[in-house]
Specification:
Shape of chain A: elongated
Number of domains of chain A: 2
Oligomer: homodimer
CATH class of the largest domain in chain A: Mainly Beta
Number of helices of chain A: 5
Largest sheet of chain A: 4 strands, antiparallel
Strand order of the largest sheet of chain A: 1-7-2-5
CATH superfamily of the largest domain in chain A: Jelly Rolls
Structural class of chain A: alpha+beta
Distance between the termini of chain A: 28 Å
Helix content of chain A: 25-40%
Strand content of chain A: 25-35%
Order of helices and strands of chain A: HEEEEEEEHHEHHEE
CATH architecture of the largest domain in chain A: Sandwich
Number of strands of chain A: 10
DNA sequence: TGTAAAATGTTGCAAATGCAACAAATATAA
DNA sequence: TTATATTTGTTGCATTTGCAACATTTTACA
């Protein structure tokens, strides 16, 4: 994952943050970040820590939109934050820097040659998030629970470059991510093991095909 | 939807295209655009017409990734085009402009003051595509076919600002987009009509709640 | 360290859904 | 216009899945 300030030195990062009127806030664990954010058009950059973005519908069903960690962004550019049903919960102590979107093209910023690096990073981040969403859509469009699991494992395996990998989610969270019933998912994983397609040891998966 | 060249006048658009070494190609209907594209990192801009991006898995199941029309972009920034299983079929005669990603930050481009408008448009386009993908994920994570249909209708209704709207897909394509069996979807839409939740007339839908 | 909370594993059952196989209605193109 | 292809509507049936309910294990934290 690209970092928003990648390839910019510390001194220039500080300068850039000043020009962007960036506002840095520290949060404890399990706090709803968006509750005290009232800006309309903002980019939130996770400096350290991690958050989970969830969406609750009118019936109270929760779905994970995204899991983000250090260097990644969220906000009006990436999710429908305006919507009050979205919440952003810190999974650990987390530092977040808020930038108003309009500041990204303010007058002062052009004078600096690191600006173009910043813009390229931003574009790269957005396109990486698009790829992540494409992956999830690819999984969710599979008809059966089994195919969803296998597609997820395939993507994990490819990104790690190995048939052995550790999934970054708990099984409860995975069921949520795949949008299937947790018990049905466990049932299917058991079958996959019995039929010799995979081996598991906790969250460590081995593909046997 | 934002247009990539929004708020740039015709003369400057021409200049910008020249600086970006843009390459414009015309396609007939039902042509696979990607078959003769060999660039690795490109942005494809649809000037006129429309295309359908689809993904085929190893079993030959086709899923729609996206439907795009005039002003919208696709390519390495927005989808996993490198993958040969992705195809891009024109739905009508279509003109597409290809831009290599690296040109977006070439030396000559900074000298022009319309450049920042172009970058803002690009960022806006990417974030709009993210929103579209978030919408689709929101739909796909619904557990039942009924909830998927209703979520889709809700989003359509909101974007049109009316309880009466015409869906932009055929029912066959809609089933594909929702990733449900077409006959099961028809069955569910019939029930929704019988139970008085909606009225339909071809692709024109009226929400009665 | 002990205790409450959260995560994981398992199963029966009812409901939802994919699939197949049609007929009928529309749309497309020669 | 006519023939052909595509889309739409409908139904029976087998399979998959969500749901509920529970036991067991692991984790978190006071």
């Amino acid at each position: 994952m690209t970092n928003l300030f990648e390839n910019i030195n510390d001194k220039n990062i500080e300068k850039l943050k000043r020009i962007l009127k960036a506002n840095t806030i520290n949060y404890r664990k399990n706090v709803n970040v968006l509750s005290n954010v009232n800006q309309d058009n903002f980019i939130a950059l996770i400096d350290t820590g991690s958050v989970q973005l969830t969406f609750s519908d009118y019936e109270g069903n929760k779905t994970i939109i995204d899991e983000l960690s250090s260097g990644e962004i969220f906000g009006s550019l990436t999710s429908y934050i305006k919507n009050e049903e979205v919440s952003c919960i810190t999974k650990e102590p987390t530092q977040i820097t808020f930038i108003e979107y309009t500041e990204i093209t303010n007058d002062e910023i052009f004078k600096n040659d690191f600006y173009i690096i910043f813009i390229k990073n931003l574009i790269k981040l957005l396109s990486e998030q698009l790829e992540a969403k494409n992956n999830r859509i690819e999984i969710l469009t599979k008809k059966t629970t089994r195919d969803k699991i296998l597609e997820y494992f395939k993507i994990q395996s490819q990104s790690k470059g190995s048939k052995i990998f550790t999934i970054p989610l708990s099984y409860t969270e995975l069921a949520n991510y795949l949008s299937v019933d947790r018990s049905a998912m466990t049932r299917e994983i058991s079958s996959l093991k019995k039929e010799g397609f995979i081996k598991t040891n906790g969250r460590r998966i081995t593909l046997l095909y």
